[in-house]
């Protein structure tokens, strides 16, 4: 029984070595497959090959076909930089604008963001309801004066 235990222990060690060796070989193969190919060639054959990006091996999508390139002269000029970001903007000065009377707006005399001063005409309210109320008050006044 001791001999069986010894044999199984030895076969386990050899299996571990074999599995470790296979894992190491797989790692080396993957490194070779994904490592960029060198562009420096030695010998006469290197002069005949077109220039590549250095990744002509499978898995990199590289090819041995020359890529057309256009050349342009550099010019000096302004290059605007825009940042897109989220944030909150708060005004330094704020004001609440209220009307003295209520009604429908007929016309607006300002644009949003425009600077206005105190006393400037900002909007025109529909005068019809106020004209009717004025005529009724004038009629009541005339009736009361006639009764005196």
What would you note in describing this structure?
The protein has 148 residues and is mainly alpha-helical. Among the domains are: 1-34; 102-148, no CATH class. The protein contains three helices and two strands. It has a two-stranded antiparallel ribbon. The protein is elongated and about 130 Å long. The N and C termini lie far apart (138 Å). Residues 43-48 have low confidence and may be disordered.
Features:
3 helices; Secretion protein HlyD; MdtA-like_BSH; 39% helix; two-stranded antiparallel sheet; 148 residues; single chain
Which helices and strands appear, and what pairs or packs with what?
Elements: H1 2-34, H2 45-48, E1 105-108, E2 123-125, H3 128-147
Largest β sheet strand count, sense and barrel closure: 2 strands, antiparallel
Low-confidence stretches: 43-48
Alpha carbon gyration radius: 45 Å
Number of strands: 2
Helix segment count? Answer: 3
Spatial order of the strands forming the largest sheet: 1-2
Specify the structural class: mainly alpha
Beta percentage is under 5%
Shape estimate: elongated
Compact description:
With 148 residues, this protein is mostly helical. It has 3 helices and 2 strands.
């Amino acid at each position: 029984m001791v001999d069986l235990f010894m044999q199984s222990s030895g076969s386990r060690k050899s299996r571990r070595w074999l599995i470790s060796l296979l894992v190491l070989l797989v790692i080396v193969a993957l490194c070779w497959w994904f490592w960029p190919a060198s562009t420096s060639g030695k010998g006469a054959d290197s002069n005949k090959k077109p220039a590549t990006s250095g990744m002509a091996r499978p898995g990199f999508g590289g090819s041995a076909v020359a890529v057309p390139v256009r050349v342009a002269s550099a010019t000096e000029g302004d290059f605007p930089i825009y940042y897109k970001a989220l944030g909150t903007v708060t005004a330094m000065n704020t004001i609440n604008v209220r009307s003295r009377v209520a009604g429908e707006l007929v016309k607006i005399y300002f644009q949003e963001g425009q600077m206005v001063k105190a006393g400037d005409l900002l909007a025109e309210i529909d005068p019809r309801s106020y004209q009717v109320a004025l005529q009724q008050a004038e009629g009541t006044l005339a009736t009361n004066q006639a009764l005196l």
